[in-house]
Fold this protein.
Amino acid sequence: MKSDSDTPLHEAPRDDRDGPHIKRVQGMYDVFDRSGTPSRATHYCAGCGHGLAHKLIMEAVVELGLQDRTVMVNPIGCAVFGYYYWDVGNIGAAHGRAPAIATAISRGRPGTVVISYQGDGDLAAIGFNQAFQAASRGERMVTFFINNATYGMTGGQMAPTTLPGQKTATSPRGRTLANDGYPVHVCEVFNTLPAPLFIARCSLADTARIMQARRAIRRALELQRDGKGYALVELLSPCPTNIGGDSAAAVRFVNEQLEAEFPLAAFRDRGNEAPPPPPRPPRGDLNAYFSEGETATAAPADGAAPEELRLKFGGAGGQGVLSLGLCVAEAGRYAGRCATWFPTYGPEQRGGAAACSVVLAGASVGSPVVDKPQVLVCLNEPALRRYAPELAPGGTLIYEAAVPAAALPELPAAVRVLAVPAAALVAQQGMPKAANTLMFAALVWSGVTGLTQAAALAAIAASLRRKPALIARNREVFEAGIAWCEKNLAR
Ligand SMILES: Cc1ncc(C[n+]2csc(CCOP(=O)(O)OP(=O)(O)O)c2C)c(N)n1
């Protein structure tokens, strides 16, 4: 929660200006720090439905006691600045992508009340499939869908909800069915899905309707409070700037025309029939996510140093680069650290470029993306050429020694370089595909990760548990790698 107590203001305190009848909105910041200019003025146009929707949603959030566990996913559109208003957790989504982010938050942080707030361009056009699939999966989130029949932010272009005959910036003679098709009825389409618990269409155009909308918003949020499932509330909303010309005309448009096309309705409320939320999945074991739900037994923590270490692994598809990174992340987890593993796939199944980033940290990992690795392990020349210049100064480079020395790009200052003939060593052992295990050994031997051999071997065993015959052979490769480094490399 942010405080504005030390923010300089050039305006009179709110209570002096507002008079006795306007209730201060709970759950919203007092000052909107937009573009570094503290202000109490909203950026919404007079008569716009967004401000009202913001207020109703936050009132319900506060009344239900959800403020400290609510995350709002802000859209692209007029509500893009939502995070300057809502005093809850906020995150911004690319246009139409709020449902994917909401899904990640909802699944990754069970117990969070997740709100996806979207306009009709955002939800019903560019992001329709995302919203539809999230509803179809019955994600634990509520979508507040602001239908103002236009792309408000960008100047009033035609939206999927624009009415037949309606004039917009991109339909100056009016929307034609032959050219532009029919308006998209989001509630009705989502109402064909089995998973959603609550679907309602309300309006923000006059007091009686606003009271209905208030109840629907509250109900949808109650279902989130109780961890029940997906809810959609569509809010027909006036857009005076683009439709109507003034507030009164915009309200008339919503009441008389928009509502005729999009009748207000409580489509369903299955909240009371919803089963209780499933038990939270256990946190941990990265392998479980990639091995059909099996889990490995964690080796005890080894008390390794908790500093964050950012690593990158590169090579060709089929060389086991991604599994190598996964094993390192898993070994880090066994050592009691937080770990992320972030793969990058080329378009080819085999032979294309493959890379992954791993972050090991004592506390939680901020970003799994590694731009300047402290440690780089390269299994082939293209990866070496591509990633070595990105190494952090003072970092460590471990690379396949079969790559000609001339291919080594210019390196940042003070990089420690370990050339390891992994391909030749594993060929000698009759394990030509195990160069990744050998490189893992070199990485552990280098000491840069602080990982023990025991944690590494436990991670290898976990990753191969569906091919148990390979566990012992990879252990041999690993030990051969340690022995080779001991004999041939300087610490
Ligand atoms: C990927 C992408 N495409 C297009 C845009 C341009 N754009 C910004 S807002 C907007 C329309 C938003 O309309 P709507 O979702 O109806 O919200 P409103 O502004 O009416 O509240 C568009 C097309 C963008 N920012 N990003």
About this structure: The mean pLDDT is 89.
